[in-house]
Amino acid sequence: MSTVIQVTADVRGTLASFLESQSYTQLAVIVDENTKAFCYPLIKDVCPNHILVEIKSGEENKTLSTCEKIWQAMTDAAFDRKSMVLNLGGGVIGDMGGFCAAAYKRGIRFVNVPTTLLSQVDASVGGKLGIDFGAFKNHIGFFKTPEAVIISPEFFRTLPGRELRSGFAEVVKHALIADRKQWSELRSSSFESLDWLEVVPYSVKIKEGVVAEDPTEQGLRKILNFGHTIGHAVESHLLHTDRKVLHGEAVALGMICESYLSFKLGYLTAEELKEIEQHLDSFYPRIALEEGELEPVYSNCLQDKKNEGQIVYASLLEKIGQANYHQPLNKEMILDSLRYYLK
Ligand code: GLY
Asked: Are 40 and 74 spatial neighbours (Cβ–Cβ below 8 Å)?
């Protein structure tokens, strides 16, 4: 069954209609302390007869032990196979709540109400579910799509500005890999003047189009990973330090490094590389890394899910608006791109 994705200025009304259209025995709303305080009040009274499951926010809690807490709450409330889960939060809640639903009693339905820009344009679409394992992001998981995704920019009022900008990196990524026209529009608009009710559905459509052609990432879907091979490696490296960065900030770093490699391999022109760097630099301050940290970042790249054997494969840009995938990167290239970024 395909997922219904609705972008709405009225999350309460849209969610109420969706829940009325469903037949389920029990409902668990999964929140963290932030979405409980700021987002749950917006939807609470349109969710009949639900239990609230609160988990701790943050990527460091996207673990099996948090899943146990969710499964325990559902078990204590005697959830059966006709129960449903509503994930109210960002990518961590969507990925992990979906993972818990898809595994509970071999699978119950779930609906995503993503509350961050990042999760609205990326994690909520495409059915990737999972948790982290040690330092490795989304290391354990599977593909399963939600019943529905209900997206509303109303939640952006509840977000810190840094979080909103972080999510914007995925919007930029979608334009860079698939839509030169949108890239030009994004470059010529100020962040403050963006109309989210246009930008979000447009970006979601780009992702949906790619996922529809390759739902389980056998090939084309890998282009959505542009910026993520090196970005994820840096994000994981900094996760357990006091210099933790947001996902989009790490992806912005990754997009600069991987654009540089696209240039070095003769795909992007020097002007295109400069254009990309200038745009990303206007949103994201450069992340500082010591020379001695580059090796551990490279080691993290060896865990990337696109790799085969010991070879790191990345998705690069052919040009602005078009990406490729399965591009082998060796250690020297990865370190060179990081040094270029840090120059
Ligand atoms: N975030 C990349 C994907 O969903 O494939």
From this structure: no
**DSSP code at position 62:** -
pLDDT at 153 over 90: yes
Q: What is the residue type of 302?
A: L
- Please give the pLDDT value at position 137: 80
* The ligand 1 atom nearest the CA atom of 211: 5
Beta strand spans in 144-300 (E): 148-151
* 245-295 pLDDT per residue, tens: 999 999 999 999 999 999 999 999 999 999 999 999 999 999 999 999 999
- For residue 125, the CA-to-ligand 1 centroid distance in Å is 8
Q: Which of 207, 210, 229, 315 to mutate to test the pocket of ligand 1 (most atoms within 8 A of CB)?
A: 207
Closest CA to 253 of 173, 161, 324: 173
**In whole angstroms, what is the distance from residue 158 CA to residue 316 CA?**
34
Q: How many CB atoms lie within 10 A of CB 139?
A: 14
From the CA of 146, how far away is ligand 1's center (Å)? 15
Nearest CA residue ID for atom 4, ligand 1: 126
Atom of ligand 1 nearest to the CA of 170: 1
Please list, residue by residue across 192-227, b when 16 or more beta carbons sit within 10 angstroms of its beta carbon and e when fewer do: eebebeebbbbbbbbbbebbeebeebeebbbbbbbb
Chain CA centroid to CA 283, Å: 18
List the one residue out of 280, 285, 174 whose CA is nearest residue 223.
174
What are all long-range contacts of 129-133, with beta carbons under 8 Å and residues at least 24 apart? 129/95, 129/96, 129/98, 129/99, 129/102, 130/95, 130/96, 130/99, 131/62, 131/63, 131/64, 131/66, 131/67, 131/95, 131/96, 131/99, 132/59, 132/62, 132/63, 133/63, 133/64
- Between the CA of 225 and the centroid of ligand 1 the distance, in Å, is 6
Beta carbon of 128 within 6 Å of any ligand 1 atom: yes
